[in-house]
Amino acid sequence: MNPLNHVAIIMDGNGRWGLKNKNSRNAGHKAGLNTVEKIIKETIRNNIKFLTLYAFSTENWKRPKKEINYLFKLLENFLINRIEDLHKQNIKLKIIGVKNFSLRLNKLLNQSEKKTSKNSKLQINLALNYGSKSELIGAFKNINKNKDKISEKSIKKYLQTKDIPDPDILIRTGNTKRLSNFLLWQIAYSEIFFEKKLWPDFKEKDYNKIIKKFKNIKRNYGNI
After folding, report:
1. pLDDT (tens digit, 9 = 90+) per residue, 78-123?
2. 91 near 117, Cβ under 8 Å?
3. Active-site residue identified among 12, 168, 201, 206
4. CA 218 remoteness from chain centre
5. pTM here?
6. I want to staple 31 with a disulfide (CB 3.0 to 4.6 A). Which of 92, 104, 145, 200 is the partner?
7. Choosing from 5, 21, 46, 60, which is the catalytic residue?
């Protein structure tokens, strides 16, 4: 049975769910937060140590400004209202991506990371303004700047996930089969599961079904 340390999720389908059920993309983003809470609980119950959630990509800035503002307001409210609870549950929050948001949001993100930095039950990596191509370009720039030799080890050293094990599983909801510039280096040997359900419809039973399937997969890593 395969050990499972790290699950990464592309939480796709919030906007489509909102339009379909509430005639509002924003309603879908709000509903998606409920799924996040459920999946965090289930991740802890399964004794998984790392959970990476793709919340906002470098490409998402192309969306309407009103929708972007709503997303960041949701995140602000979540940090204000829920970070104490996450801290009490011994959950660590780490941001991957470039923090070039409002002063208020940047401050909340930094405070949340600092407050939870010593927690050890679960590490949630929140990918915000994250793009794998940008991350890799940054790594190569740092290798060049520090005159390091190019190797797998040196590239990993300068990734934003340098102290995090690579994902064992990548899940994408929303019935879309692409990686969308997410952890392209790190998922080289991840098992990938594309889920038809939109993110707000994704339930604990769906998550556990994937976990069970993963644990019984024969993982060869290029061997036979």
Report:
1. 999 999 999 999 999 999 999 999 999 999 999 999 999 999 999 9
2. no
3. 12
4. 25
5. 0.96
6. 200
7. 60
